[in-house]
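Per reviewer request, we include the raw input and output of the structure prediction for the construct analysed in the revised manuscript.
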Amino acid sequence: MPEVSFDNLLVISVIAVLAPLLAGAAPRLRIPAVVLEIVAGIVVGPTGFNWVRVDLPVQILALFGLAFLLFRAGLEIDLMRLHGQALALATGGYAVTLALGLAVGTGLHALGWVQQPLLIAVALSATSLGLVVPVLKDAGNSQTAVGQTAIAAATVADFAAIVVLSFFFSTSNGSPGAKVVLLISFAALIVLTAVVAVRAGRSMRIGDLLLGLQDTTAEIRVRLAVLLLVAFVALATRFGLESILGAFLAGAIVSLVDRDSSSHPQFRGKLEAIGYGFVVPVFFVSSGIRLDLTGLLHSPGALARVPVFLAALLIVRGVPALLVRRTLGGRATAAVALLQATSLPFLVTATQIGLVLGTISSVTAAALVCAGLLSVLIFPPAALALLNGGAQSGPGSSERPERQERNASMS
């Protein structure tokens, strides 16, 4: 048996513990732990002190962390909310996003900054659903018109961006026609699995069996979720698609089946404990270790790409929010635009795939990830400031209808 060292994993585990502690010690700064994890990875990696490298144990856990991150994003999807006008606006907004992204990518390609305009367009087209939803929930805005609009837009953007990335930039070879057939076949298999899972979930006999084993050492619901995750990742790879698509759809199916969680309220908490308590931090820290900032820091011209990409992210994802301006008003629309432009995990994923395929340079990848870090630090607090200001100003407070109703009843 070859000798395996866990020294690198030990350092990463220490960072995974310290990052949320530091974030919790300074709550007013509103710095997400994921940002500290990536920054710490940069510090201990080759760009910094060169203490840690991504060896085999770290690489395996990081891959599983990426899968779990996309699985968790799929788990955030509430398919029952995506209908009617909300779905139409979110879909139309994503179409505008892709058009703007292609325009930005073409311009950057003309400057010689990027090699593949479509990859840049797709990388800029996603919204971090896993970051936006907690921000809205903590601020009490998740059930308001603003919150529902932002969540619907983020849901469609996340799903569409993953599908487009898997279709056009899969690491497997194949003609576009063959990929269409494979994607349709994979989608049919997903639908079949979802139907079977929903029907099985309605079975009293199976429900009683799961209920009896869910909180024992069997942890049967968690094991079934992990089985579904691994199976869909393996199937997506077999179909010549990116594994992230399988992980995301596995989470969406679990979300569909797990709508009535009254009999197992701890299930999702257990899944989050596995993901965010172990493998997801390994992915983010290792992403920071892999991030090559040498070329970015040694060239002022290269460093200038970071604010350009940040502005591009705001334009590509923020401008489509104008579709809801008539409904929400100016201040709320600006808040939605900022929330939609918040993106980090997908940028990390897209840049890593681009590096593997050779369609993006290490300098561009580093600039994109840095822009994503800044978006997480700047956009959500700015959006909350707009929402809080709108709640206090009166006329622009349509995003907090429950407060208006309460005031009306008191008068």
